Amino acid sequence: MHFELTVNTANIVENYATLTRSESLLPLVGDKAKLQHYAATTPIVDMVRFSPAQLDADALIGLLRPLTPRLYSIASSQAEVESEVHITVGVVRYDIEGRARAGGASSFLADRVEEEGEVRVFIEHNDNFRLPANPETPVIMIGPVPALRRSVPLCSSVRRTRHRVKTGCSSVTRTLPKISSIRLSGSAT
Hints:
mainly alpha; CATH 1.20.990.10; Elongation Factor Tu (Ef-tu), domain 3; 2 domains; two-stranded parallel ribbon
């Protein structure tokens, strides 16, 4: 099992403070606003570093939430790449109080998976989004450009049917240029 380490919560802070009897964290437990602010601005790793305590692995793991799957849109058309699945990932990078941070999954893919590395995946089918059955039916896509850029499979289909695409499909930005391929293992159904 894997656990969430990048996103702190008020519940985790409160449980850690109570378990460790941390003099710096216990006062936060009685002040909801300060507790929420601390959780929002202090990743779990910093909380443990700034308020160290003797905990065994089971006690620490007991505080953490299971890692939830990260969902990414498929950015390839099966008609064009057959058995491959391409994804477009916007790498999450941000600062918290002057310290550089990165998203757990996106930075893992961008910074730590080597070319030809293997990543476990699953495919979640979406029945709510599809092109009209008649390829002659005009389609207008309206939405934020980042969402349209993630619709590369749709763009591929649109290109094949000779429709003009005005935005979102001419280029895909914030992809992972250093990785030319990653072997994805998992169920494709």
